[in-house]
């Protein structure tokens, strides 16, 4: 009978040990998963940082392009004004030239 009690105690001890091993295994699995998730989070943060840097760089480039475009528009407008003035001057000179031809013909 004492042997049966000891056998029962051994069985209970083995069952408890198996249960503890399962719990410990689950905890190790959770730790592994936690570690894996921490690595993924760190990697994603690094990607976000990289993308943020790229975005800032692109924004700077876009601002520079807009500034260049505005400068080009200003230059074009200035040249258009000069062209318009020259056209008006040519028209005036052509009219003056025509008037002189008419005077010469009358003489």
Automatic annotation (TrEMBL):
Record carries keyword Oxidoreductase: no
Superkingdom field: Eukaryota
- InterPro entries reported in the protein's UniProt record: Tuftelin_GRINL1A/MYZAP/CCD68 (IPR051375)
Biological process (GO), any one: intracellular signal transduction
Per UniProt, the keywords (alphabetical) are: Coiled coil
Any coiled-coil ranges, and where? 34-103
Instruction: Report whether Coiled coil shows up as a keyword of the record.
Output: yes
Which terms in the GO cellular component ontology are assigned? I band
User: Which sequence ranges are marked TM in the entry?
Assistant: none
* Protein name, per record: TUFT1 protein
What is the native source organism of this protein? Answer: Serilophus lunatus (silver-breasted broadbill)
């Amino acid at each position: 009978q004492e042997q049966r009690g000891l056998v029962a105690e051994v069985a209970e001890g083995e069952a408890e040990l198996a249960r503890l091993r399962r719990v410990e295994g689950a905890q190790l699995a959770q730790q592994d998963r936690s570690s894996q998730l921490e690595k993924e989070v760190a990697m994603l943060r690094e990607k976000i940082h990289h993308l943020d840097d790229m975005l800032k760089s692109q924004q700077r480039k876009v601002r520079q392009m807009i500034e260049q475009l505005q400068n080009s528009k200003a230059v074009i407008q200035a040249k258009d004004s000069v062209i318009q003035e020259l056209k008006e001057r040519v028209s005036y000179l052509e009219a003056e030239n025509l008037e002189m031809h008419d005077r010469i013909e009358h003489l």
